Amino acid sequence: MPDKKDFQTTFERLKKLLSQYEKRLTVAVNKPGSYSLDAAYSEKFKRNVFFGAVMIKKNYVSFYLMPVYVFPDLLKGISPALKKRMQGKSCFNFTVADDDLFAELAALTQQGFERYEKAKMV
Which residues does 3 contact at the CB level (< 8 Å), separation at least 6? Predict the structure, then answer.
């Protein structure tokens, strides 16, 4: 059973990965245990495009990164350890902070942001 005391630390570390993009994205949610960012408004979808989020759930902390759903080729070359943390197509779950996986996730988030920029979604 995961130690839920670690969830807040894990949440804060993952939130820090996303919050560095606040200047170019829109904070959609910023409350205890939940933080998310949206990209630009899309005429196609008639709403802002979701970029990413971090949320404390019952058994883990979830990190959502929509660019890997929109551009699945971003997942080519991710480590087996990070792949093991995936649930679905754009969610990574953690029970504790992991420096190596968080560094890899930070790089993946940067690549995703750059792809959104290139696609004029920012």
Answer: 95, 96
Q: How far apart are CA 94 and CA 97, in angstroms?
A: 7
> Per-residue pLDDT averaged across 59-82, rounded?
96
CB 96 within 8 Å of CB 6: yes
Q: Compute the C-alpha angle 33/96/31, nearest 5°.
A: 10
Has this prediction a pTM greater than 0.70? Answer: yes
* C-beta of residue 54 within 8 angstroms of C-beta of residue 85: no
Mapped onto helix, strand or coil, the DSSP state of residue 59 is: coil
If you average pLDDT over residues 94-120, what whole number do you get?
95
Q: Which parts of the chain fold into alpha helices (H)?
A: 5-19, 67-70, 80-84, 99-118
Report pLDDT digits (tens) over 72-100. 999 998 999 999 999 999 999 999 999 99
Compute the average pLDDT of residues 35-60: 89
Domain architecture of the chain: domains with CATH: 5-118 (3.90.1150)
